Amino acid sequence: MIFGSSYEPLFHIGPVPVYDHVVAQWIVLFILAVICIAATRNMQVVPRGLQNFFEWVVEWCYNFFGGALGSEHAAKRYTPLLATFFLFILTSNYFGLIPGAGTIHGFVPPTSDWNITGTLATIVFFSVLIAGFREQGGHYLAHFVSPHWLFLPMNILEQFARPLSLTLRLFGNIFGHEMIVAFLVLMAPFLVPMPLQALGVLTGLIQALVFTILATSYLADVVGEGHH
Amino acid sequence: MEGAIAIGAAVAVAVGALGGGIGQGFAGGKCFESIARQPEIADQVRTLLFITLAFIETLTIYGLLIAFMLVGKIG
User: Which residues does chain B have within 8 Å of residue A210's beta carbon, measured at their own beta carbons?
Assistant: First the structure.
């Protein structure tokens, strides 16, 4: 159970074992896709209901990430990626609040497995590298030897420390929360775990925000320097 | 051996929570001070506070993770 790797796979597709968290991830993707399709079907000039809500979400994302990234150009280019992170992580975290989550196979928050948070952090890692070369070209390499070439090992280490801390922060918070709720359910099944689940609503939102804000600031680092 | 592992898990959580608790206390206290001085920036300060607390809590969570791993070894 620890680090989510020692239990049995749910089923196999050919030689590939499929675990609970992967199925949960598919369900989260399905939910997001269905909501998005429902929101963008029969779009009207004057939005109502779901479309109205999603226009507000998209606008909020553009303002929030655009403000952090610093330029209109960067906001247009990178907000889709960052907003996807936010919505996916938020939905994943809240997946654990569904009754039966954690006890029924296939119903666990996907972010409580470090393989999935690690995947997200790896995407951030490569996005930052690609964005750096795309916005600054070869000048991006100068970033690694600033302020002095003696700092080269430190700068490289920093690049690799980022995905590690992103992975462990999100995984640790969600997994820790799941484990504490599981212990409480064992000790006192009724009503006692409820305040903690309410705290989980807050934790899920804050951790989704923190992951996204960190990814934004890493991107803003490499994007902002390109316009000097 | 199992006793040593159990004590190790307890120390991991205890020390992690100690440092994190003190840090969060400082952060929260300063936040309340600044809101008391300038109530009109309460919203901005609160957002920053939550993010800061999440960062500090991460370090405590590392300790908790180590404790879970150690407890898993006892079986």
Answer: 51, 54-55
Contact yes or no for A208/A86 (Cβ under 8 A): yes
The conformation of residue A11, written as its DSSP 8-state character, comes to: E
pLDDT in tens, B24-37: 999 999 999 999 99
Q: Which helix (H) or strand (E) holds A16?
A: strand A16-18
- Quick check: helix, strand or coil at residue B21? helix
Whether residue B50 lies within 8 A of chain A, CB to CB, comes out as yes
Q: What is the pLDDT of residues A97-139, one digit of tens each?
A: 887 666 676 678 888 888 899 999 999 999 999 998 988 888 8
Per DSSP, the three-state class of A185 is helix
In chain A, the residue whose alpha carbon lies closest to the alpha carbon of B53 is A206
Phi, psi dihedrals of residue A146, rounded to the nearest 5°: -100, 145
- Cβ-contact B49, B31 below 8 angstroms: yes
- Cβ–Cβ under 8 Å, residues A104 and A19: no
Nearest to A173 among B61, B69, B72 (CB): B61
Q: Residue A171 corresponds to which tokens in the numbers above? A: 């995984």
Prediction ipTM score: 0.72
Chain B residue numbers with beta carbons less than 8 Å from the beta carbon of A164 are: none
* Confidence (pTM): 0.84
DSSP state of A44: -
